Amino acid sequence: MKYNFIVNPNSRSKKGAALWKEIESELVKREVVYEVFHTRYRKNATDITLRITGDGKEHTIVVVGGDGTVNEVLNGIKDLSKVILGYIPTGSGNDFARGMKLPTNTVEALENILNSKNIRKMDVGELSYYERQKRFGVSAGIGFDAIICHQASVSKLKIALNKIGLGKLTYAGIALYRLIKGETVRAEVILDDGKPMIFENTYFAAVLNQPYEGGGFKFCPKADSGDGQLDVIVVSGISRLKVILLLPLAFAGWHTWHKGISIFRCRKAEIRTARSCAVHTDGEAVFLKKKIEAYVLPEQIRVITR
Predict the structure, then answer these.
(1) Contact residues for 15 (Cβ-Cβ < 8 A; gap 6+)
(2) Which of 70, 111, 155, 262 is most exposed, with minimal Cβ within 10 Å?
(3) Quick one: residue 80, left, alpha or beta (phi over 0 = left, psi -120 to 50 = alpha)?
(4) Dihedral sign computed on CA atoms, order 293, 296, 301, 303
């Protein structure tokens, strides 16, 4: 078997390059057949994946990077059913690895990819906005959570915390700041073409394929990436203080009982907001929108698990 490694050398505040050297030395030692592609700019992983999968053949692609790199690869795959995906997490949030229960240690993750016999089929979501589409493996959202993801991606705090292995705390810190400064919005949510549900004073609405997003927040504890459905969380109608108090509980998934936390399951969700809000897919900014639609694609991708 030939492995195609797509490596983001700038992941985890540029530690990705050093981690790849560690991986490559092991590949050479084991005489593994592989080809490596290093990303050089934003969305480069998408372009690389398009070239790899453009021949219509079966391919094994291993991502060495963060959730954003996985997102770029998913968006470059020509035919999801013809790809086996492996993942060695070298990012800060690592929600994809957390949701799929993959090793986060580099050596263990490589060992798992080379020796695991477990292949799991995973749903892939797609976000549609104004005649454009973008796939996601973890989540897509509009509002407060999208702002956090965007600010975390450009934060100097994230760089500093990554150096001491606490990069995921970036999201929690920015979340607290945005709760104090941000504004709520009126939102309308339609699930599977059903009746519209109105939510006043909405902080955010997110559609999850995995239980986690935002660096470990277990927003939808029962989300299952292989069940053919998406889980939707809407946070609305409660005070900022209560949201701040609920955030630590969300790391364990203990927030779901509280009034103002609404969770649903569906194959398609349409979300409209009274004004333009930030939107993201897998933590990558999509810019300001007033309407998004998220749904499960009919094709699944095979993921190397343990």
Answers:
(1) 90, 162
(2) 111
(3) alpha
(4) positive
71: its two tokens: 């997102």
Q: What is the mean pLDDT of the chain?
A: 90
Q: Which whole-number Å values give the CA distances from 267 to 23, 95, 263, 270, 294, in the listed order?
A: 38, 21, 14, 10, 8
Q: Using CA atoms, how far apart are residues 213 and 282, in angstroms rounded to an integer?
A: 8
With tokens 């021949």, the residue in question is 55
Using CA of residue 51, residue 52, residue 54, residue 55, what is the dihedral sign? Answer: positive
The answer to whether 126 and 80 are in contact (CB under 8 A) is: no
Residues 6+ apart with CB under 8 A from 59: 4, 52, 53, 82, 83, 84
Residue type, 10: N
Ranking 166-170, 260-264, 274-278 by mean pLDDT, the lowest is 166-170
Quick: pLDDT tens for 40-93. 999 999 999 999 999 999 999 999 999 999 999 999 999 999 999 999 999 877
